[in-house]
Amino acid sequence: MNMRAQCDAGGIVSAGTPYAADAGATVLRNGGTAADAAVATALALAVSDPANCSFFGRGQFLWRDSEGRVDAVDGTTIVPLAVTKASVEGFSGAAIPGLPQALAALHARHGRLPLAQVVEPAIRLAEAGFTPTQKLRNVWAGRLDALSRHPAASSYLCENGRVPAHFTHPRLAALLRDFARLGGDVLTHQGRAKALAGDIRAQGGWWHPRDLTASAARDGEVITGRFRDCEVTSIGRQGWGHTLIQMLAILDALPRFGPQMTPDEARRLVLVIRRALTDRPQHLGTLEPRPEGVELARLSSAAHAARCADAIVQEMADLPPPIDLNPETLATPTATLDQDTTHASVLDAQGNCVSFTCSIGPHFGQAVTDSTHGVLLARSYQMETRPDPGARDVTEMCPTVVTRDGKLLLALGAAGSERIPGAVMQVIVNVVDRNLALPQAVAFPRVTLKGSTPRAHRHAGAAVIGALHAWGTPPELSGDGHVNHLGIVHAVGVSPEGDQVGAADPAWDGAVRHA
């Protein structure tokens, strides 16, 4: 297993690209707070991971300071006010950005350095360029056809019909310089809202200047729960923190996990994930209400968790015994276009931390850019099914902070749509119950449910994989890469010895850097 970790006391960053981790660590070394470093990291992700992050995208940010105070910034995307019908393709499905305002709000509330100093690493990265990492190149290659259909996107993101060998984005660098001066007003200054909206509308989109002038970051909903002797804090409403808290609350009523994953443990995890996904009040992949779903306020209640735990004990008793199954006989499922995100976690020298997740929808969002800046536009899942004007998108993001006795244990989150809460939950289990060091906890084999089919890491072992056959369908297997992954986790934390530690999931080309 490929594990990445580092320890230091001056601050640490775990992010989806080495370039973004470098940007955050640079800001920490220059005296920035975790919030400063998170802004630098997010902007560098918008440059170096265009498949999953865009300056015109969305994000959810969870801050905790060294005294235990918590703050959340909701920077989700918004449905344009002029929408009259469901929109999916190209410009017609493009949402109003939320990330610039969220980054400006996070910096204003908890930053220390001037914004220009925080933004500078991303500007340098966009101007000098970088070599795309291998897994990013693979995803990029899979979206070349879509990107090449739009002249502006093709001119910025394709090089003679191929993935650029060295990617630079000077126009994005210029926009970031404006952001360094203007902060959250960057999309409205000197007629930019009118020009941007006119450009998008001329190409089939719904944007209007008032969408941009009225857009603002909001306070995120902070929710808390417990697992064993730990407090777990995440984001609700616009994210899936309720589902994560529910999973952990159910597991808290069930036996502790041992040092190795057993067949029964794997089945228990899948049943907990299935229960939590079934209880969601919206259909997966859409925001259509489910009449049989459980309202968010009840999802993580102790009474509901106890009922779920009792039902899972009965289901476990009724499952057939594991079958003798050779994992080598199971084919890896065909790779498909995946809905994805990117996550980063930051911890500074004073013990303040930020856990944040960014997204633009499926890889490369709508696969179109604005004409002036060449910035990718995010897909709005709300616009696909319930295009309510002004509605804010709900995503599966759940940036999370775990503490024990008031002291930071973990700051983490994941990429992977509905796989996110299950992946975060299992890393928490691996640290709290299995007593694994953070790198081992992130690389430890995981299981999940995709549709009605169980999935497992191929290195989970024949016994675990055979146990997942209990539902009558051969489980799908995932390697250590990004194809059909089981969630991509990036985490930082404090070890029992007091060291700052970090881990980047081997399913992507992320990295850990210390200040």
Brief descriptors of the model:
single chain; alpha+beta; 7-stranded antiparallel sheet; 18 helices; globular; disordered N terminus
In order across it, which strands form the biggest sheet?
A: 1-16-15-11-10-7-6
User: Tally the helices: what do you get?
Assistant: 18
**Broad structural category:** alpha+beta
Q: State the share of residues found in helices, binned by percent.
A: 25-40%
Low-pLDDT residue intervals, each spanning 5 or more residues: 1-8
- State the major sheet: 7 strands, antiparallel
- Give the total of beta strands: 17
Shape label: globular
Rg is 22 Å
Look at the structure and give the mean pLDDT.
Answer: 92
Strand content: 15-25%
* Distance from first to last alpha carbon: 26 Å
Give your account of this protein's structure.
This protein is α+β, with helices and mostly antiparallel strands and 515 residues long. Helix 1 (18-29) runs antiparallel to helix 2 (34-48), helix 2 (34-48) runs antiparallel to helix 3 and helix 11 crosses helix 12. The protein has a domain at 7-220 and 338-400. 36% of the residues lie in helices and 19% in strands. The relative contact order is 0.20. Strands 1-16-15-11-10-7-6 form a seven-stranded antiparallel sheet. A seven-stranded antiparallel sheet has the order 5-4-3-9-8-2-17, covered by helices on one side. A three-stranded mixed sheet has the order 12-13-14, covered by helices on one side.
